[in-house]
Amino acid sequence: MNFLAHARLSFNNEAVLVGNMVSDFVKGSKQFEFPPQIQAGIQLHRRIDTFTDEHPATIAAKQIFRREYRLYSGAFMDVVYDYFLANDAGEFSRESLSDFSRNTYRALDRYADLLPPSFQRMFYYMKQQNWLYNYREQRGLFNSFAGLVRRAKYLTDSGPAEQLFTAHMELLQEQYRLFWKELKPYAEQQFIELLKKTE
């Protein structure tokens, strides 16, 4: 899953949110340098990623991008999932997504001294360009595709991803629905278990 989903699946706990958002920027034993609830967020992020990668809906949806993008097909799906989450009326209205995005940025700002430098650099652009809210718009989704291509060593063109998304949007949305209804309760269970260990 991508940033919006990890923020949503922090269940309004700011310390867990920090860990969930920075997990990919924390390597090895560095995670143990953070306070316990941030460590819980880091672990939650990793469990969510494993669940996502192994879920049949994700495996099926990735096939749409695999021929063109091979090992990066999962990264494209992470962004696609955030697009559908941002447009999921059961999770967000346009107004509540806007509020949620602002509140997420503010919470992360309160922990600015603990954010890894590499995350801080990216977070500046996340706030300036309001990534979390803009996942709602197809333009925002395609901008994320382009950003993914820019950061990847062996990719040069996000155009095919845009075409594949447009051609298979209904199928991708159905895979999102199947996936999210199982991911959310799983993540909540993991959240509860991980927080108990910090008491």
Automatic annotation (TrEMBL):
<protein>
    <submittedName>
        <fullName>ACP phosphodiesterase</fullName>
    </submittedName>
</protein>
<dbReference type="InterPro" id="IPR007431">
    <property type="entry name" value="ACP_PD"/>
</dbReference>
<dbReference type="Pfam" id="PF04336">
    <property type="entry name" value="ACP_PD"/>
</dbReference>
<keyword id="KW-0444">Lipid biosynthesis</keyword>
<dbReference type="GO" id="GO:0008770">
    <property type="term" value="F:[acyl-carrier-protein] phosphodiesterase activity"/>
</dbReference>
<keyword id="KW-0378">Hydrolase</keyword>
<dbReference type="GO" id="GO:0006633">
    <property type="term" value="P:fatty acid biosynthetic process"/>
</dbReference>
<keyword id="KW-0443">Lipid metabolism</keyword>
